[in-house]
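Reopening this ticket.

The earlier resolution said the output was attached, but the attachment link was broken on my side. Pasting everything inline this time so it's all in one place.
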Amino acid sequence: MKSTLLTTVLATLTATNALTLNITNSTTGQKILNKALTAAGTPYAWGGGSCEGSTHDQPPYQYGDTGYDCSGLVCWAVCQVTGRDLFSEGLRVTSDMYCAEEKELKYKKYPYEQRRAGDAVFFGGDCDCASRKSIHHVGLMMDSGDRMWNAPNDDVNKVQENSIAKFGEKPCPYIVRFA
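Inline output:
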């Protein structure tokens, strides 16, 4: 039986805002989450993010910040780890990512109950792809529980960890697994 060496990174959120995470596997999703964790504390910027990194916010919400919005953070981390440019493929917007057919998305969708670290979790009222504007937020699961890593437009306005309950609405029925 061949044994596999698993790298363990032990991390803690400290007073200096250094974030680390206990990692016990190296799935593609975990690698994407690890990359996204390096953006800790980056400002929220509406429309912000590219394959190269954070960008200035876009109209109509221009505060002068350079950073990420929720989908920009996820797409940047995916691009950095896999080389796949979701920005240029038309999958940069949260609703486009959630509503894409698996053939176009090239990633699998699973029921929310099967979530694990690095999966993209979505929010949006009834999560109806017929009215895409309702799907408005995406984050990366920290584990199979209720914590996610995201770029929320909230009172903190920085890339951070949050509980799913914080959003006051149920997550959409499906997650996207970057595998």
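Reporter confirms the inline version is readable. Residues 70-82 form the longest helix (13 residues). The longest strand covers residues 137-141.
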